[in-house]
Amino acid sequence: MSEFEYITSQQVSIGKQMDPIHRIKLMSPDEWEILTEEWLDSKDQYHSTEQVGGAGDMGRDVIAYIDNPKDNPKNYQWDCYQCKHYNKPLSPSDIWTEFGKIIYYTFMNKFPIPNNYYFVAPQGIGSSLSSLLKDAVKLKEEVKNVWEKYCQDKITKTESIPLVNDLLVYFNQFDFSIFDKIV
């Protein structure tokens, strides 16, 4: 330390000042979900928000209700925020299963299809995934190609979900333009 650098009592007690983006990168995945929900809760565009991430979340970490789900429990409007706090930008292989989950659980009528489905990642989105999210037709084709490897046995822990019959028809009609990113 040179003679012109000083350590304040504040630095000793709470640590060195850090840019917010670096502080976000140090958060745990659970803290990242909480921050995302708090951020969404502050927006005027949503009726309410709910953090549901964790085991059994069915591909939904944070739900942002556009209208009150109590008014129309079967067909409410909502946006989904899938939080991914990894130490690198997201790649397609990091999130293939998430596409499978939202398709399967909406097919099973567990909840309506979201208006938008956002991936939220403090390390950003890699170029391959970014390109796919810009091309809904290519994204659908790629998800179909990797379904057996990344989705079929990973959507639930109890059963295999092959992309056949009515689920395949549903998949082919599914609007993949709802998928996007927020970084």
What features would you describe in this structure?
This protein is 40% helix and 13% strand. The chain has helices at 9-14, 20-25, 29-41, 92-107, 127-133, 136-151, 165-173, and strands spanning 48-51, 62-65, 78-83, 116-120, 179-182. A five-stranded mixed beta sheet has the order 1-2-3-4-5, with helices on one face. Helix 4 (92-107) links the parallel strand 3 and strand 4 (116-120). The longest helix has 16 residues, at 92-107.
Count of separate DSSP helical elements? 7
Q: Helix proportion of residues, in percent? A: 25-40%
Rounded mean pLDDT score: 91
Which sequence of strands runs across the widest sheet?
Answer: 1-2-3-4-5
Main β sheet profile: 5 strands, mixed
User: How do the helices and strands follow one another from N- to C-terminus?
Assistant: HHHEEEHEHHHE
Multimerization state = single chain
Uncertain ranges: none
Rounded to the nearest angstrom, the distance between the terminal CA atoms is: 36 Å
**Strand segment tally:** 5
Percent of sequence in beta strands: 5-15%
State Rg: 19 Å
Identify the overall geometry: globular
Helix/strand-derived category reads alpha/beta
